[in-house]
Each structure stands twice: as C-alpha cells, then as structure tokens.
Amino acid sequence: MNTADRRFLAAQLLQSLRDRYGDSEFGYRVQAFFAHVLVRLGANILEINAQGHPDVKATWYSKTLLIQVKTLLHRRADHMFEISEPDLAGITPPSKMYVGYLALLDCAAPIEWITVDYDKVRRHLRHPVHTVTLKADSNVSLSRDCTDEFAQLIVDKKDRLFDLRYTLLCERAIRGNAI
C-alpha cells in the first residue's frame, strides 16, 4: 500500500474510533498514539498526561520535547485554530535544552500531522489562525515523518485499534515497547 492510500485508510479508521468512543476518549488515544510515533522515531517518552500540560514529554536528540497534542477536522480552507494560554504555557521551553511543539492531527482525509515549534505558535496566541498558516509555519520534515509513522501505525493496528486503551498505550510508550 502506498503512502497516500495509507493516509486515506488511516483517516477512515480514526473516524470509526472517534464514532465509537467520542471526541474526548479519541483525543486521549491520539495523544498516546503520538507518543508511539515518537518512540518509532527514536524518542524516549517521559510522560503522557491526560490532565495538565504538556500532553507528551520526551527526550530526543539530547533535547527534552514538550508537546501539546490536538486533533482537528479541517474540511474547509478557512478553518481556524486557536491556541490557549495554558496550552502555550505547557510547551514553553524553560531553557535551551527544551523544545516546545504544538502537534495538530488534521483528521480530514488524508490525515496529516502539523508540528509547529513554540516560537511560531506563540505569535498566534489570543487570536484564531488559519490551519493552512500553521501548516506553512510547521516543521515540514518532522510533520512528514510523524504523518508517515502515524498512518503506518494506525493501518498496522487496524484489527486491534478498538482494543488499544489509553492506559495500555501510555504504559507501553513510556516503557519504550512498541504496540
């Protein structure tokens, strides 16, 4: 299956997961799946938080990543997103050894991760920003890598997708065990 087909199939699978469990549980699972994407890319997961900020804390290439994970369904070119003050505070790097990211999963087919670093996200605090602007501000390479790994993960686990509970996903990601 080629990459584009995988991204379309992953969108369908994610919609069925959202339909079955609702937006809240879906969001939690996406956080945990994103942690597994980071593991696949070589990161070490330190924390995954259902409450509080950041959603995911990891070490990667001698840096500590602070990541706020959000999902959206971007079906129109004029779609807007608004970053909250607590979300921004949660990804604010306290020193040069930290990097903050907003990781947006655009669930519209074909799915896509949009990862935007703190310095670019903070410019949009207190006013809505077009999703396409965030995409233009994104770390293109990281976004592509996350999208590819995520789509592969979702398609690979399609038969077990409903059974992969948030707590199980978190425990395995923190231990560095692939699902």
Low-confidence stretches: none
Helix content: 40-55%
Give me the secondary-structure category. alpha+beta
Profile the largest sheet: 5 strands, mixed
How confident is the prediction overall: mean pLDDT? 94
The first-level CATH class is given as Alpha Beta
What's the CATH topology label? Answer: Trna Endonuclease, Chain: A, domain 1
Which H/E pattern describes the elements? HEEEEHEEHEHHH
Q: Indicate the proportion of strand residues.
A: 15-25%
Number of strands: 7
Distance from N terminus to C terminus (CA atoms, Å) equals 20 Å
Helical region count?
6
Q: Could you explain how this protein is built, in words?
A:
The protein has helices at residues 3-40, 85-90, 118-121, 131-137, 140-156, 166-175; strands at residues 44-48, 56-60, 63-72, 80-81, 98-106, 112-117, 129-130. With 179 residues, it is α+β, with helices and mostly antiparallel strands. It has a single domain (3-175), classed as Trna Endonuclease, Chain: A, domain 1 (3-Layer(aba) Sandwich), CATH 3.40.1350.10. A 5-stranded mixed beta sheet has the order 1-2-3-5-6. A two-stranded antiparallel sheet has the order 4-7. A hairpin with a 7-residue loop joins β1 (44-48) and β2. α1 packs across α5 and α1 (3-40) crosses α6. The longest helix is centred in the first third of the chain and has 38 residues, at 3-40. It is globular.
